Amino acid sequence: MEVVIVPDAMAGGELIAEALAALLRRKPDALLGVATGSTPLPIYQALAAQVRAGSVDAARARVCQLDEYVGLPAGHPESYRSVVLREVVEPLGLGADSFMGPDGAAEDVQAACEAYDRALREAGGVDLQLLGIGTDGHIGFNEPCSSLASRTRIKTLTQQTRKDNARFFDSLDEVPHHVITQGIGTILEARHLVLLATGAGKADAVARAVEGPLTALVPASALQLHPHATVVVDEAAASRLKLADYFRATYAAKPHWQGL
């Protein structure tokens, strides 16, 4: 696993945005897997700035969701569809037909999960999937003890994850109990995985995912199985890494390094 330690969240966002821009220059119709929450916002802001400056053309890019709440009404501002449209699709100037996501309001949620998993494969697969990490080590909404071979499916959120996400709602009671999420097996099929983590609150989860054993107790540790996984962390999130100095030295020794 490639680990890059950056000074702060803004630097991490700019670094990953450049990797996305480089991908779009190579493959203009790339399928970009996006994550939600506050952590990836600097990525989208930096990429949108490049689009506005004319340094990259995102007109043919495609975007797909990592997960979605179950049961929120259509158009709810905190549905992940709404968030992705607001934070990614609109700033990049993409059309509605560029967007793929699971139907969290479907009557048959299981069928919607299977349909989305199939749609990702039929679209040619995800070229670069952005990920965050939960304080308990989850990726997407694959909570601890999720199968490392799991596919897109419905999951019940832990109370901790609901508390973590309550800041986006008026109260904890409004946070849904269920979500559709790409499974770990689905996530691992992306050609490149890029995880961004910032802040001391993620330090323990990052250390367990990167340096700990491969275990379903830390779903993000599954990235150790991937042939092209990059973890970008700020100094605070890197504070529990035993090999932090090694990672810094490795990055510094690659002056030719372009993107991720």
From TrEMBL:
<comment type="similarity">
    <text>Belongs to the glucosamine/galactosamine-6-phosphate isomerase family. NagB subfamily.</text>
</comment>
<dbReference type="GO" id="GO:0006046">
    <property type="term" value="P:N-acetylglucosamine catabolic process"/>
</dbReference>
<feature type="site" description="Part of the allosteric site">
    <location>
        <position position="153"/>
    </location>
</feature>
<dbReference type="GO" id="GO:0005737">
    <property type="term" value="C:cytoplasm"/>
</dbReference>
<keyword id="KW-0378">Hydrolase</keyword>
<dbReference type="InterPro" id="IPR037171">
    <property type="entry name" value="NagB/RpiA_transferase-like"/>
</dbReference>
<feature type="active site" description="For ring-opening step">
    <location>
        <position position="143"/>
    </location>
</feature>
<feature type="active site" description="Proton acceptor; for ring-opening step">
    <location>
        <position position="138"/>
    </location>
</feature>
<dbReference type="GO" id="GO:0042802">
    <property type="term" value="F:identical protein binding"/>
</dbReference>
<feature type="active site" description="For ring-opening step">
    <location>
        <position position="136"/>
    </location>
</feature>
<feature type="site" description="Part of the allosteric site">
    <location>
        <position position="146"/>
    </location>
</feature>
<protein>
    <recommendedName>
        <fullName>Glucosamine-6-phosphate deaminase</fullName>
        <ecNumber>3.5.99.6</ecNumber>
    </recommendedName>
</protein>
<comment type="function">
    <text>Catalyzes the reversible isomerization-deamination of glucosamine 6-phosphate (GlcN6P) to form fructose 6-phosphate (Fru6P) and ammonium ion.</text>
</comment>
<comment type="pathway">
    <text>Amino-sugar metabolism; N-acetylneuraminate degradation; D-fructose 6-phosphate from N-acetylneuraminate: step 5/5.</text>
</comment>
<dbReference type="GO" id="GO:0004342">
    <property type="term" value="F:glucosamine-6-phosphate deaminase activity"/>
</dbReference>
<keyword id="KW-0119">Carbohydrate metabolism</keyword>
<dbReference type="GO" id="GO:0006043">
    <property type="term" value="P:glucosamine catabolic process"/>
</dbReference>
<dbReference type="InterPro" id="IPR004547">
    <property type="entry name" value="Glucosamine6P_isomerase"/>
</dbReference>
<feature type="site" description="Part of the allosteric site">
    <location>
        <position position="155"/>
    </location>
</feature>
<dbReference type="InterPro" id="IPR018321">
    <property type="entry name" value="Glucosamine6P_isomerase_CS"/>
</dbReference>
<dbReference type="GO" id="GO:0005975">
    <property type="term" value="P:carbohydrate metabolic process"/>
</dbReference>
<feature type="domain" description="Glucosamine/galactosamine-6-phosphate isomerase">
    <location>
        <begin position="11"/>
        <end position="225"/>
    </location>
</feature>
<dbReference type="Pfam" id="PF01182">
    <property type="entry name" value="Glucosamine_iso"/>
</dbReference>
<keyword id="KW-0021">Allosteric enzyme</keyword>
<dbReference type="GO" id="GO:0019262">
    <property type="term" value="P:N-acetylneuraminate catabolic process"/>
</dbReference>
<dbReference type="InterPro" id="IPR006148">
    <property type="entry name" value="Glc/Gal-6P_isomerase"/>
</dbReference>
<feature type="active site" description="Proton acceptor; for enolization step">
    <location>
        <position position="67"/>
    </location>
</feature>
<feature type="site" description="Part of the allosteric site">
    <location>
        <position position="156"/>
    </location>
</feature>
